[in-house]
Amino acid sequence: MEKAFWQQRWQEGKIGFHEGAPNRHLSEHFDALGQMPGAHVFVPLCGKAVDLDWLLARGLRVSGAEINVDAVEAVFDRFEVTPDITQYSALVRYSKGNLTLWAGDLFELTADDLGSVDAVYDRAALVALPPQMRTAYVTHLRRLCPQVPRLLVTYDYDQSQMDGPPFSVPENEIRSLFEDGFSIEHLASVPISGPLAERCSGKEHAWLLQPPGS
Ligand SMILES: C[S@@+](CC[C@H](N)C(=O)[O-])C[C@H]1O[C@@H](n2cnc3c(N)ncnc32)[C@H](O)[C@@H]1O
Predict the structure, then answer these.
(1) Best substitution site from 3, 48, 67 to test ligand 1's pocket, by max atoms within 8 Å of Cβ?
(2) What is the DSSP code (8-state) at residue 168?
C-alpha cells in the first residue's frame, strides 16, 4: 500500500485494525517464541497497538516501526512519558526505557539502527501489504532480523469478498514466503471477528516461524 494511503487512514480515524486490547494470539502464543525478560522484540508496522504495552509488561525490550508519527506519539502519551527524540537519516527515533519506536518508513530502517533482535511479532503487518510488496517486506525483515523466531498473525478469506487491506494471505503463500529459512508451525485459527467481520468472513491464523536449530 502507498504510504499516503496509511497517512490518510490515520488522519481520517479509519483505524478499524486497532484493537483496544492485546491480540488474543499474542497472549496465547507468545511463550512459543521462548523469549525471556530482557529479550528484544521487534514489531513491524506497529500502529499504536496495545500489544506493545503487553510485551513491555513482560519485561521485554520492544522496538516498533510505524509510518504515522501521531500513532507513535499516542503510544508514549498512553504511558504518560516524554520520549527522547532523535532524528536519523530517514526516520525519527522515539525512545524511553524499554520502548523504541521508529517513526517513518520501515523500508528505510537499517539493521544497524535497530540493533540485534531476538524475536519478531507481526500482527496485521504482512496482511497490510498488497501482494507485490510482500516479498520485499519479508526480504527486508530478514535483513533486519536474520535467524530469529517470529509469531505471525494473518487473515485468510476469499479475496473476492472485499479489497484489502487487510489482505488474505493463505497458507500456500505463507509457506512460499517463509519455507526457505524457517520451519512453519500452524498454532491456531479462529473466525475473523471485530469490525473486519462486518466486511468479510474467514479465519484469523497464528503461525510460529522458527529458524533451523531453534
Ligand atoms: C493494519 S495496520 C496494523 C497496525 C498494528 N500492527 C496493529 O495490530 O494495530 C498497519 C500499520 O502499518 C503502518 N504502515 C504501513 N506502511 C508502512 C511502512 N512502509 N512503514 C511503516 N509503517 C507502515 C500503517 O500506518 C498502519 O498503522
Answers:
(1) 67
(2) P
Sign of the four-CA dihedral 52, 66, 8, 83: positive
Q: Which domain holds residue 13?
A: 3-210
Q: Which of 3, 4, 39, 43 is nearest to 151 (CA)?
A: 43
Is 0.85 topped by the overall pTM?
A: yes
Best substitution site from 45, 63, 91, 107 to test ligand 1's pocket, by max atoms within 8 Å of Cβ? 45
Per-residue pLDDT tens over the stretch 43-98 = 999 999 999 999 999 999 999 999 999 999 999 999 999 999 999 889 999 999 99
Structural domain count of the chain: 1
Q: CATH number of the domain that 60 lies in?
A: 3.40.50.150
Alpha helices, H only, 20-170: 24-29, 51-57, 69-79, 111-114, 131-144
DSSP letter assigned to residue 159: G
Give per-residue burial for 194-204: e unless 16+ CB within 10 Å, then b. Answer: eebeeebebeb
Look at the chain and count its residues.
214
